[in-house]
UniProtKB/TrEMBL annotation:
Chain segments annotated as transmembrane: none
Provenance organism: Hymenobacter swuensis DY53
InterPro entries linked: Glyco_trans_4-like_N (IPR028098)
Domain Glycosyltransferase subfamily 4-like N-terminal: 23-185
Protein name in UniProt: Glycosyltransferase subfamily 4-like N-terminal domain-containing protein
CDD domains, alphabetized: GT4_GT28_WabH-like
MF (Gene Ontology): glycosyltransferase activity
Lineage, uppermost ranks: Bacteria, Pseudomonadati, Bacteroidota, Cytophagia, Cytophagales
Pfam family, one: Glyco_transf_4
Annotated SUPFAM superfamilies: UDP-Glycosyltransferase/glycogen phosphorylase
Gene3D superfamilies referenced in this protein's UniProt entry, alphabetically: Glycogen Phosphorylase B
Length: 420
C-alpha cells in the first residue's frame, strides 16, 4: 500500500515596502499580504515603522530599522544599510521570492538580490509623477530605473498604460512586464456605503446636490482647480462639494476656497456641521463610503494616477464618476476598449462607464478646461436619468476587479516566476 505524498511546504514570500503610511500603495500591500498568505508563508518588511503600521495584516512584520531623511551623505549611507540588512533578512528567512512595493523599496530589493526571485509592483506613472523632480529625480529617471529594472524577474504594473512608459521611457524589456489591476473588496465596500449619515450630515446632503471627492490633499490629486470650477457652478445652480481625506495641502486648499468666496467647513476646527457651507472638508474618515454613496457625482481631478483606488471605490458605491483622463488608470477603468490618446483630451468624453474630462494642470488651457468641467457638472446635475444610468454602469464595471479574479492572476505570475 503506497503512502500518500506529503504536501509541498509553502514557499517563503517576503513583501517589502518603503513605509506604512496612509497611501493607496500601502493599502494594496496590506491586501496582498492577507491574500497571498493563503498560498505562501508571508513575511512583511519595511525600512522603518516611524508613524506606525496603518494597515496591519496579521502577518509577521519586520523593520529594517533604517531611518530616512537627513543630509545627502546620510541618505546614501542609509541606502547602503537598507540593502545590507535586506540581503541578510532574505538569507535568514530563506526567501524564495521578494515582492517590493514603491520605488525606493524596488531599488533595495534589486540591489540586495541573491538566489531568490525578485518581483516589483509598480503602482503609478513614472513619466508623469510630479514628485520626481530635481537632481534626485534626474538620477531616478536617467540612472536607477533604466539601470536596475531589467534585473527583476518580473515587473507587475497596476495599469496597462504604465507599460509603454517603462518600455519607451526606461528601456524595460517587454517580456519582463505584466499588468494586474488592483482589486476591490466589492461586497464589503457596498455594505459600508449603506451606513447611515448622522442627522447633521444628512441635512447637508438634503440641502443641495453633493459632489464628493476622496483622497489625500496633495499635488497629485490636484484639487485646487476643481474648486474654481465648483465656484463657477454654484453661480448657476445650488450644489455642495465634499472632500473626504486630509494631507499637506489642507491649508492651501481651504485658503483658495475662501479666496473664491466659498463658505468653507473644516472638520478639524470642531465647527457645528450645518447646511450653511458650500465646501466641506471632512478630513480622514474610517468609513469614507457612507459619504460617497448618497452623493450625486464623484469628481476626481488627479494630475496622475496608477490604478486609482478612490475612483474604483466610488464606482462600487454606484456614484457616476467624472474624472480627468490622467495618466494612468481612469481611461482603463471607464473606457477599457479605447486606447490612450497621444494628446490630452480638451472636451468631455462620454465613456462606457463614466465621464472622462480634460486635465486641469495645463496652464495654457486651464481656464478653458475648467469651463468644460463646470458645464459638464451643470448638465449632469440637471439630468437625473443620466446620473442613474452612469451609476448602474459604474457598479457593474467594478465586478471585473474582485479579489478572486485579481489574485488568480497574482498566484499564476508568482508560480511562473518560481518555476523558472
Amino acid at each position: 500500500m503506497s503512502t500518500p505524498a506529503s504536501p509541498k511546504p509553502a514557499r517563503n514570500l517576503l513583501l517589502l515596502i518603503s513605509n506604512l503610511g496612509l497611501g493607496g500603495a500601502q493599502r494594496v500591500f496590506h491586501d496582498h499580504s492577507v491574500e497571498l498568505a493563503k498560498h505562501y508563508h508571508v513575511t512583511e518588511a519595511v525600512f522603518n515603522i516611524e508613524g506606525g503600521n496603518m494597515y496591519p495584516s496579521g502577518n509577521e512584520m519586520l523593520s529594517l530599522e533604517v531611518d530616512g531623511g537627513g543630509s545627502p551623505a546620510d541618505k546614501i549611507r542609509n541606502f547602503g544599510r537598507r540593502i545590507g540588512r535586506l540581503r541578510a533578512l532574505k538569507r535568514r528567512l530563506r526567501a524564495d521570492v521578494c515582492v517590493s512595493h514603491l520605488e525606493g523599496a524596488d531599488y533595495v530589493n534589486l540591489l540586495s538580490k541573491g538566489s531568490e526571485k525578485v518581483v516589483l509592483c509598480i503602482h503609478g506613472s513614472k513619466l508623469h509623477d510630479g514628485n520626481i523632480t530635481g537632481l534626485v529625480g534626474w538620477l531616478r529617471k536617467k540612472v536607477l530605473m533604466p539601470g536596475l529594472y531589467n534585473r527583476a524577474d518580473k515587473i507587475v504594473t497596476v495599469s496597462r498604460d504604465i507599460n509603454p512608459e517603462l518600455i519607451e521611457g526606461f528601456g524595460v524589456k517587454p517580456e519582463k512586464l505584466v499588468t494586474i489591476n488592483n482589486f476591490f473588496e466589492v461586497a464589503q465596500i457596498e455594505a459600508k456605503s449603506r451606513e447611515p449619515l448622522t442627522v447633521q450630515e444628512q441635512a447637508v446632503y438634503d440641502a443641495a446636490p453633493v459632489l464628493v471627492t476622496s483622497g489625500r490633499l496633495t499635488i497629485q490629486k490636484n484639487q485646487a482647480p476643481l474648486l474654481d470650477s465648483f465656484a463657477a457652478l454654484i453661480k448657476r445652480r445650488p450644489a455642495k462639494l465634499v472632500f473626504v481625506g486630509d494631507g499637506e495641502l489642507r491649508e492651501d486648499l481651504t485658503r483658495h476656497a475662501r479666496q473664491l468666496g466659498l463658505r468653507v467647513y473644516e472638520a478639524w476646527n470642531k465647527d457645528a456641521l450645518t447646511p450653511d457651507y458650500d465646501v466641506y472638508f471632512l478630513g480622514l474618515q474610517q468609513n469614507p463610503f457612507k459619504y460617497i454613496r448618497p452623493a450625486s457625482l464623484f469628481v476626481f481631478p488627479s494630475a496622475w494616477e496608477g490604478f486609482p483606488m478612490a475612483l474604483g471605490e466610488a464606482m462600487i458605491c454606484g456614484v457616476p464618476a467624472v474624472t480627468t483622463d490622467c495618466p494612468t488608470g481612469p481611461r482603463e477603468i471607464l473606457a477599457p476598449s479605447t486606447g490612450t490618446p497621444r494628446t490630452g483630451i480638451r472636451a468631455a468624453e462620454k465613456a462606457e462607464f463614466g465621464m472622462l474630462m480634460p486635465m486641469l494642470n495645463q496652464p495654457a488651457t486651464l481656464a478653458a478646461d475648467q469651463r468644460v468641467w463646470t458645464e459638464m457638472l451643470y448638465q449632469l446635475l440637471g439630468d437625473e436619468a443620466e446620473r442613474e444610468r452612469l451609476g448602474r454602469l459604474a457598479s457593474l464595471r467594478m465586478q471585473d476587479f474582485t479579489r478572486e479574479k485579481i489574485f488568480r492572476q497574482w498566484v499564476a505570475v508568482l508560480e511562473d516566476v518560481l518555476a523558472n
